[in-house]
Fold each of these.
Amino acid sequence: MKLSVVIPARNEEGSIAETVATVAARLDEEGIDREIIVVDDGSTDATAETVKAIAAQDPGVIYLRSPFRNGFGFAVRAGLERFSGDAVAVMMADLSDDPDDLVTYYRILDSGVDCAFGSRFIKGSSVEDYPWFKLVINRVVNFGIRVLFAHGYNDTTNAFKAYRREVIENVQPLLSHHFNLTVELPLKAIVRGHSYEVTPIRWRNRKAGSSKLSLQEMGSRYLFIVLYVFFEHHLSRGDYRRPDEGSSDDIRN
Ligand SMILES: Nc1nc2c(ncn2[C@@H]2O[C@H](COP(=O)(O)OP(=O)(O)O)[C@@H](O)[C@H]2O)c(=O)[nH]1
Ligand SMILES: [Mg+2]
C-alpha cells in the first residue's frame, strides 16, 4: 500500500525542510512506499525554493503550487486531487505532528480500516505548549461536535488524519475553503459510513513561523460545515452514504 502525505505550507521556511526530511526518513525506515506532496499557495518566503530543491533530489517529494485560490482548504484539496497513493494523510508543515504517528496511521489503514484518526486528548497522547486560549476553544468545539454526532471521538478538529483513497472519493464534493475542511473530511467520512480507528498522538506547538488560524474568521465557517454534515446525516435518507452500503439510490421505480 502506497501512502501519500499532503502537507499544506504557507510561509514555512523555518520548518518545511525538517518536516519533509523527518517524514521521508521515518517512512523510508519502515519501508513504506510513499509520496510527499507539499502544497504551497502564495508563500512569500523561501518555502517554494526550499521544497523545489528537496524535490529535485528526491522523486518521492513533489512541490505543488495550488491551482486554486489561496487558503488552507483549497491547498489541501489541491493535494487530494493530485495524490497517487492508496491512502493519504494530511499533515502540518510546522513540525507539530509526529512522523511516528504517521506510521501508526499507515498500519491502521493497512489493516483494512478506512480512516485513522489521532487524538491529542486520550490516554497515551501528549500535547506540548498549546496556547491556552486556543485550547479552551478547541475543547469546547470538539465537545459540541461530539454531542451532535455522538461518535465518541474528542479531536475531530485536528487536521492530522489519514484516509484510504475510497474515502476521499466518497466525501466529494468538498465545500470548505478554509480550515473548516479539517472537520468536513472526518465528519463526512463518518456519516457516509466509513470505518475509523482512533489512536493517541503527540502534538507540539510550532517553534518557527506564525500560526495562520484566525479563530474569529473561522468560527461561523466551522459552524456552517458542522451543521451541513449534521443535516445531511439526518435529512438526506442516506443518499450520500458509501455506495456498497445499499443507499436509497438502489430503489427503482
Ligand atoms: N498552502 C497553504 N497552507 C496553509 C494555509 N494556511 C495554513 N497553511 C498551512 O496549514 C498548516 C496549519 O497552519 P497553522 O498556522 O500551523 O495553524 P495552527 O497550528 O492551527 O495555528 C501549516 O502547515 C500551514 O503552513 C494557506 O492558506 N495555504
Ligand atoms: Mg500549526
Amino acid sequence: MRIEFPNPFKAPGRWFKGNLHTHTTQSDGAHTPQEIVDRYAQNGYDFLAITDHDKLIPLDDLDPRGMLLIPGEEVGVGRGELGSSFHLVLLGIQRPISAKSPQAVIDEAREQGGEVVLCHPYWSLLTLSDLLSIDGYIAIEVFNSTCHHSIGKGFSSVHWDGLLAAGRRVWGVAVDDAHHHFNDHRPDDVCVAWISVKAEELSLEAILESMRRGLFYSSFGPEIIDLSVEGGVIHVKTTPVKHITFASGAGRGERWTAIETETITEAHHTIREGERFIRVECMDREGRWAWTNPILITD
Ligand SMILES: [Zn+2]
Ligand SMILES: [Zn+2]
C-alpha cells in the first residue's frame, strides 16, 4: 500500500488563513475593494483574493492592512449538460483572461502562472461528467458561504468524492464568495469560511505552491489540529465536534459520532482494502464543518 498525502499538519512553516473568492463594487459586491479588505483584515485573515466577475481589478491602490492580496477574476463560461455555465476562479493571474471555453480559460490562467478553482458545482448544478470533461483545476469549492446562505446549495462534497473516485487528484476549498449580501433571514457572507494554508512565508508564490501541493485544510468553524498516517491508521484531532467522518468511495469510509459525550475531539480509521482515498471532515454542534484534503492510496 502506497500512501500519498503531503501532510500540512507535519510540514514546516506556519498557518495562514485566507479567503479565495471575493466580490466588490467593481462587479456585484456591496463593499468597495478597500472596505472588503478592511473587513477581512479585522477578522484575522492573512490573505484575500479579490475575484470580481469578468474583471481583474488593480490592487496597487489598496492598503492591504498587512494581508497578502491575491489578484484574481471569476469567469462564467461554457455550458454543462444541464444548461448552466462553469464558474471558474482564477488566482494569481497577471492579465485579464480572453479565452471563452472552460478548458481554454484554465490553460490560459495556468500559462500566466496562476491556478484555477472550479466554483460552487452544486449551486451551478454541474454534473460529475461536466467536472470530468475538463482538467487542470487544482480544487473545487467543497463549501461556498454565499451559496449556502442564499439558496442552501453551499456543499459540494458529493462532486468532490465523484472526482476522487474517478482518480482525479483535486483538492477542496471552503470560500465565502463574499458579496456582503444579506437580509433579515439571510446572514452576511463576509468572513464566514476560510482555508488554512501551511507555508514558509506569506507571499503569492509560497501560498500558491502550498495550495498546489495540497498543504491546507478548509473550514467555517472547527479547527483540525493534527492528522497523522502511520501503519495504515489515520488519526485526527480537532476542536470539539459532533462527528468526524473518514469519507471514501462507494459504501466505504467510517464516521465517529459523539454519543455518550457532548462532543469528540479525535478519531481514527484503519485504511481498508479497496479504499482509494480517505478525506476527513467534521461538524461541530453549531452545524459548521471542516475538511482535510484527501489521503490518496494506491497499491
Ligand atoms: Zn460564481
Ligand atoms: Zn463569485
